[in-house]
Amino acid sequence: MVKPFVLRNKNDAAGARAIWTAVQQPGIKAVAVKSEGQQAVLALHRVRAQLVKFRTAQVNGLRALLAEYAEVMPQGRAGIRRDVPAALGRVAERLPAVVIDTLREQYARMGQLDEQVQQIEQRLQHWHRENEASRRLAEIPAVGVLGATAAVATLGDATVFKSGREFAAWLGLVPRQSGTGGTGAAAGHQQAR
């Protein structure tokens, strides 16, 4: 956010000056401090995202290893879960046991990552049930528990936004809110005619 305001070399003094300059600009929206609960939910979302990334890498790695032995696996976790045991049985007849053991460990690790992601999602579900704002957001069509908990945890206090459009602009979903909305210079110009 302050990068455009850094004039020269990156150092602490230049960074502090850039922050000071940035907060002096009109249109900078202050966001309320998050509670420890909101920070905890954000941490859960970060850990979940990291685990999903690891799981995806694990699935792709296992698929690639099996492809080297002419066992083509479908994309997606469901297809891998369904087809890997049979594929391991087929390659076990022609490959050394150490390779088969390693492939089985990779497959088991995928299951462990699934369980860890599921545990975090259960924790998020529990927080969601206890948080009124998150429950209300989840009532919106196409907003689920993950989206609602992430929004509430990221937002802080929604009352700092004057409108839904201002919030959407803060999220980056619509262009920045900069219109006067019928007040200020634009309204004065219309009255002068």
What's the SSE blueprint?
Elements: H1 12-24, H2 36-67, H3 77-92, H4 97-130, H5 132-138, H6 145-155, H7 164-171, H8 185-192
Helix pairs in contact: 2-3, 2-4, 2-6, 3-4, 4-6, 5-6
| Derived structural class | mainly alpha
Distinct helical segment count: 8
Strand content: under 5%
Q: What's the end-to-end separation, in Å?
A: 40 Å
Ranges where pLDDT stays below 50 over 5 or more residues in a row are 184-193
Helicity level, as a percent range?
55-70%
> Biggest sheet, in brief?
none
Order of helices and strands: HHHHHHHH
The number of distinct β-strands equals 0
Categorize the overall geometry: elongated
Average predicted confidence as pLDDT: 82
Rg, rounded, reads 25 Å
Query: What number of domains?
Result: 1
